[in-house]
Amino acid sequence: MKTAWKVTMSAVLLAGGLWAGSMLNLTAEGAGVGSQPGTAEDPVVTKSYVDQQIQKALQGGTFTPPTQAPAATATNAPAATTAPTKAPASGSGDTGNASEIVDVKPGQTLIAGAGAEFIVRAGKAVIYSQDANGVADLTDGVDLANGVAAPTNHLLSFPRDGRGIAVQDGQTMKIVVMVRGAYTLK
Hints:
It contains two helices and ten strands.
């Protein structure tokens, strides 16, 4: 008898839940919550239109929202892209947003440009700074002064030129550094 009561109550609760859910769905559709794609409230745009807007934004243009869906005049030609810049062979580079792996040998110093970011991936490195201010360790949220060991796999931010990292004294192995931004290897 208890089993039949449990099955009956489960069926009643399930049916009630389905009925309540369908009523909520009908109410939401009637209230205009789910806009129909392709209307003025939710325009459908093509990939070429999105690519054009992205190129405008990258070139300093302003975004112009569509007043209606773009006409079907889009071509299948790929959008123009800019090639990433390579660092010059002299050892200094400005790679923009791309990361570059740099090997620093003992006796060399990797000097960061303003706004550069380093991550020491292998080896023992120390902070190099010409003034009292150091380098921001964004991983731990601390400032590392000149001569302090640079922790491995921590994001180091260099707000000004003239600061960097070097191989720790007494080390015979190079350090491997992931660099984003301008740098000079001395």
